[in-house]
Design brief:
Enzyme class: hydrolase
CATH class of the largest domain: Alpha Beta
CATH superfamily of the largest domain: DD-peptidase/beta-lactamase superfamily
Strand order of the largest sheet: 2-1-8-7-6
Subunit structure: Homotetramer.
Helix content: 40-55%
Pfam families: Glutaminase
GO biological process, one term: glutamate biosynthetic process
Number of helices: 14
Number of domains: 2
Keywords: Acetylation, Hydrolase
CATH topology of the largest domain: Beta-lactamase
Distance between the termini: 40 Å
Largest sheet: 5 strands, antiparallel
Bound molecules: 6-diazenyl-5-OXO-L-norleucine
Radius of gyration: 19 Å
Structural class: alpha+beta
Shape: globular
Length: 341
């Protein structure tokens, strides 16, 4: 593994700051106004209860690494976290078993296929591929600390609650609706098990995974959870260290390549941030060392990513200077100092 060679080299932080509080407030409000009237996309209905979501809901929440909070629209509407949970369960597993083990036992490459693809497992000789697609997420949940499914569920819930800075509750209606219909996830778990790639009982693991996806959050919660990854693993609101800085870094690099499924390349090209989306319409985008933006709007595109959310992220990534790849030419002064043009 490459990491072994460089593990004694100090990890220098990417630096940079958010604009002033008033400027961020103003731009978040502008983003909301700009896209509130857009109606493209379709609300997910493959989990029957999700079809009840209001397509007009639209919330934006940005939390800086100093805990500063900037809000617009429906930031306190509760919705189930769904696939966004995968990012945080990955971080908890990485914290528990380490970088090398996650790399070897799950993988970190994009499948190029839909999030719930069965073919991706077959094409890759039983590899779950990465923790952001359903196969990899189910395999990752099976690696959570705990001897029983109940203990693993307790570890998932308390870990995600520490990221959010409050005790998260399960939405029982969503959990039961998905458990009645999740034949595909059960098939994926059975297939992984047939390849010897699942560390626990397949049906019990799907049950824990489905509960994890049914945890109820708001856009405001998601922004705090994302900001914890932006802040080297420390929750900027509670001050609690949830995971190590190395794990926060590893989680963000995985989100950059796999967080937006088969659209991850396009997303990085357009928006330039590690991000994770969920089928209820949430997206978290993280700017390391600066903060995290959470968007919530249920209508989705064909890959399962919120349409208004993607537009608002594209706008704010540019306007707030969040894009990791954007730099401006420097000017060298006679005294040796540098400024940017
Ligand atoms: O396993 C599933 O299909 C859902 N619990 C989560 C899927 C999801 O959020 C995909 N996101 N775009």
């Amino acid at each position: 593994m490459f990491a072994a060679d460089v593990q004694n080299v100090p990890q220098e932080a990417f630096t940079g700051y958010l604009p002033t509080k008033d400027r961020v407030d103003d731009l978040v409000a502008q983003a909301h106004q700009r896209y509130a009237g857009h109606t493209d996309g379709t609300v997910a209905d493959y989990i029957p209860i999700l079809a009840e979501a209001n397509p007009n809901w639209f919330g934006l929440a940005l939390v800086g690494i100093n805990g500063s909070t900037h809000l617009a629209g429906d930031v306190d509407v509760h919705f189930s976290i769904q696939s966004i949970s995968k990012a945080f369960v990955f971080a908890l597993v990485c914290e528990s078993i380490g970088h090398e083990a996650v790399h070897e036992r799950i993988g970190v490459n994009n499948t190029g296929l839909a999030f719930n693809s069965v073919i991706a497992v077959e094409l890759n000789n039983g590899s779950p591929m990465n923790s952001m697609v359903n196969a990899g997420a189910i395999a990752t949940t099976a690696m959570m600390p705990g001897d029983t499914a109940e203990e693993q569920w307790g570890a998932v819930r308390s870990g995600l609650s520490r990221f959010a800075g409050r005790q998260l509750e399960i939405d029982d209606g969503v959990y039961l609706s998905e458990m009645r219909t999740n034949k595909r996830n059960r098939s994926i778990a059975g297939l992984l098990d047939s390849y010897g790639r699942l560390e626990k009982d397949p049906l019990e693991t799907v049950d824990v995974y489905t509960r994890q996806c049914a945890l109820s959050v708001t856009a405001r919660d998601l922004a705090v959870m994302g900001a914890t990854l932006a802040d080297g693993g420390v929750n900027p609101v509670t001050g609690e260290r949830v995971v190590s800085a190395d794990v926060a870094r590893d989680t963000l690099s995985l989100l950059a390549s796999c967080g937006m499924y088969e659209k991850s390349g396009e997303w990085l090209f357009e928006i330039g941030l590690p991000a994770k989306s969920g089928v209820t319409g949430g997206i978290i985008s993280i700017s390391p060392g600066k903060g995290a933006l959470a968007t919530f709007s249920p209508p989705l595109d064909s890959a399962g990513n919120s349409v208004r959310g993607q537009r608002a992220c594209a706008f704010l990534s540019r306007a707030l200077g969040l894009n990791l790849f954007a730099s401006s030419a420097h000017v060298s002064h006679q005294d040796g100092s540098l400024t940017h043009s």
